[in-house]
Amino acid sequence: MENDIISADEFFEKEYLEKLQYLLGVVRETGLNPDYLVNSFYKNEDNEYRLKKDLEEELKGKDDKESIINNIVAASGLVAEIPEFSAEGLNSLHYQMFKEVYPWAGQPRMMDIVKTEKDENGNTYESLYEPWNRLQDNPIAKTKGTISKEIESLVNDDYPEITGENIETVIKIAEHLKKIWYLHPYPDGNTRTTARFIYDFCQGKNIDLDFRRLSNEELVNMHPLLAAANSDNAVHAYHATEELYVVVGKAIGIDEEMMRIAITTSEPQSNCEL
Asked: Which pTM value belongs to this model?
């Protein structure tokens, strides 16, 4: 791939047009299209990404056009750097991606949230997430919050080599992805932040995960995540979880049919309990 993800320093040293060219190239070649980018770009008749007209107009004559495009890039997660795989590292990633968008970027929420979501059939339902008072560590009580617990579980888990018959690692990655996402540590930006966090973790474990599979409609639309994390119907939860496994399996390069066959003969083996 010509446009590898570069460091923040390398990116911000580029001239404005170079930055734009780099960003468009990455989006085109990798399929990295979180909703923030999708809302800022469109594909023309030649299947090329271009800035939407309203953003083009906004950039014209603006002295701060650099900051506008930089904000788009930051929120895409393209140049974010994760200092460590911990609750602090997740907060740092969220801050880098959303610091120019939200004043509370990088800070776990301090309120409970209920969101009205739509399933794959267009039906609406209320999605309940982790209570806010369980999220963070309590240094006074010397207790760990659920963010720390789940990320420690991710880090300490075993990830055996993936083969046609052994998909244990795929299932573990999918389960950790689901559990960290379900915590919903922030009022917004959880899917993008979690997907990038899991991607970088997999890179460090030499797990060849295709980030575009976690950033395109399959995951950004969240149907597998929502259904797997929120269903109170055992049969529905089983099928929803299977769909999530398939999405992650395809991101790791396993054919969908092979993945479904392997799922029927595999049992999740993970220490990713909260």
From this structure: 0.75
Number of domains in the chain: 2
DSSP string, 196-258: HHHHHHHHHTT----HHHHHSHHHHT-HHHHHHHH--SHHHHHHHHHHHHHHHHHHTT--HHH
Take residue 230 and report the two structure tokens written for it: 């929120």
- Beta-bridge partner residues of 41: 51
Range of the domain at 52: 8-76
Q: 13-29 burial string, b = 16+ CB within 10 Å, else e?
A: eeeeeebbebbbebbbe
41 and 114: one domain? no
| Cα separation, 97 vs 72, whole angstroms | 9
Reported as a single tens digit per residue, the pLDDT across 51-89 is 666 666 666 666 666 777 777 777 666 677 888 999 999
CA distance 175 to 248: 10
Q: What are the CA-CA distances from residue 116 to residues 102, 112, 119, 125 (Å)?
A: 21, 14, 10, 6
